[in-house]
Amino acid sequence: MDFSDTIGVSAAGMRAQTARLRVAAENLANAETTGSSPGADPYRRKIVTFREALDRASGVSSVTVRSVGEDQSDFQMRYDPAHPAANEQGYVKMPNVSSIVEIMDSHDAQHSYEANLNTMQVTRSMLARAINLMKD
């Protein structure tokens, strides 16, 4: 693996973590988004899945986003008979988003992003030193 492969792998990791951060932010923004009619489904939490991507030419493996899917876990029910989406019993389906889970996922994505950025910076520094050695 050469320097450009290392930078490419780090960049792929950063793109994947950016997608993960974007989805966590969307989930947090919609944590209270309910349906607008009686019994309607609320916002459903989104989840990012990754896959390995192999560059056959270089033999280097990196990561890409496989898909952004929906979490199929159950919705919470909240008693609020005045809500426009309340069912006959007065319960409203609430999104299956946990703010704590989304914040933890955001922190994990941030740390992974930073690790990839650090790898890229170290690689760039090593490349600059190698070029300087060749000049001398």
Automatic annotation (TrEMBL):
InterPro entries named among the record's database cross-references: Flg_bb/hook_C_dom, FlgC
Entry keyword set: Bacterial flagellum, Cell projection, Cilium, Flagellum
Flagellar basal-body/hook protein C-terminal domain: residues covered: 89-133
Keyword Mitochondrion: no
Record PANTHER family: FLAGELLAR BASAL-BODY ROD PROTEIN FLGC, FLAGELLAR PROTEIN
Family according to the record: Belongs to the flagella basal body rod proteins family.
Name of the protein in question: Flagellar basal-body rod protein FlgC
Phylogenetic placement of the source organism: Bacteria, Pseudomonadati, Pseudomonadota, Alphaproteobacteria, Acetobacterales
Encoding gene per record: flgC
